[in-house]
Amino acid sequence: MSEHPHVSSEPAAGVFSLTQIRHLMRVEFSRAQRYGYPVSCIVIGCDRLGHLRDLYGYEFREAVMDDVVTLLQRATRGCDYVGRLMDDRLMAVLPHTTKAGAEASAGRILASARDLAFQPEGKPLRITISIGISHFENDNTMFFDSLVESAEEALRQASEAGGDRYVHVDPGPTKD
């Protein structure tokens, strides 16, 4: 990690707000339904970030989030959207991405996150992340909210399983 002499409260360039990323997810989901292409949603959280903030302070937490955002921006394509959710979580909307493609992306993101290096108070510290994945394909759900909720549930499962992993949760069959 580079030194972070100035921590900005402004979102990183190209990172959408909660309202914006949810709107973009809704728009992409509608397009995917209309034109019959897949779309995936991933939700990312830094493991133990609240605890690390308590130990090392707000600026350390922001430095970690900034590096994870940068990592996510590098790992996604130009047509993907990255946004910041509440509770220090991030969301990426991956249009034209199947379940297998989202899982491959998550694997690359996890591998890159393992290379992040932090040294709070001069001590080396490894940061891990957890990723929740859900996808829309072949009309497996009718509502974009189901897709987002499934990705959030997958993140919860990944975190509870010890973190440093991804979990996929299918949004479930459509209701007639």
Helices and strands in order, then pairings?
Blueprint: E1 15-16, H1 18-35, E2 39-46, H2 49-56, H3 58-75, E3 81-84, E4 89-95, H4 99-113, E5 129-136, H5 144-160, E6 165-168
Parallel strand pairs: 1-3, 5-6
Antiparallel strand pairs: 2-4, 2-5, 3-4
Helix pairs in contact: 2-3, 3-4
Characterize the structure shown.
The protein is of the alpha/beta class and 176 residues long. It has a single domain, classed as 2-Layer Sandwich (Alpha-Beta Plaits). Helices cover 43% and strands 19% of the residues. It has 5 helices and 6 strands, in the order βαβααββαβαβ. It has a 6-stranded mixed β-sheet with strand order 1-3-4-2-5-6, with helices on both faces. Helix 2 packs across helix 3 and helix 3 packs across helix 4. The radius of gyration is 16 Å and the shape is elongated. The termini are far apart. The N terminus is likely disordered.
What key attributes describe this structure?
5 helices; alpha/beta; Alpha-Beta Plaits; elongated; disordered N terminus; single chain; about 180 residues
Short description:
This protein is α/β, with parallel strands linked by helices.
Shape: elongated
The helix fraction, in percent, is: 40-55%
Rg result: 16 Å
Largest sheet: 6 strands, mixed
Distance between the termini: 50 Å
Number of helices: 5
Record the strand order, biggest sheet.
1-3-4-2-5-6
